[in-house]
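Milestone 3.1: sequence recovery, worked example.
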């Protein structure tokens, strides 16, 4: 299976659960989001089942920081930035935010390699 390289720029936003725990995300949408959806659908057809909430493993790079994580389809009906029931959610851990000096509301450019 070939690996795909994608890029997207979007605002970093915080999502807070009802218990007060929060996570930071960038929504991968547009052409990159469509490519991710197509890749997930093909993999589901090849494997014959959904895998890990339809997640896709990725290697993500923002600035000089590269890490591996999983992206998840955005199924939210939320109206916050990135909460438009479209695209994919890329979690941005604190270590990356600190290393790259990005905070909630900042636009960040991300390069993704689908694994």
């Amino acid at each position: 299976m070939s690996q795909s390289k994608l890029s997207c720029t979007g605002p970093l936003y915080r999502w807070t659960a009802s218990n007060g725990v929060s996570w930071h995300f960038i929504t991968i949408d547009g052409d990159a989001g469509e490519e991710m959806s197509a890749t997930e659908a093909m993999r589901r057809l090849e494997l014959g089942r959904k895998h890990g909430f339809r997640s896709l493993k990725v290697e993500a790079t923002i600035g000089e920081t590269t890490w591996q994580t999983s992206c998840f389809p955005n199924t939210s009906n939320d109206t916050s930035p990135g909460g438009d029931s479209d695209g994919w959610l890329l979690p941005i851990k604190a270590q990356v935010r600190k290393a790259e000096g990005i905070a909630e509301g900042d636009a960040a450019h991300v390069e993704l390699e689908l694994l």
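The beta strands are 5-11, 13-16, 22-28, 56-62, 65-73, 88-91, 107-114. Residues 78-84 have pLDDT under 50 and may be disordered.
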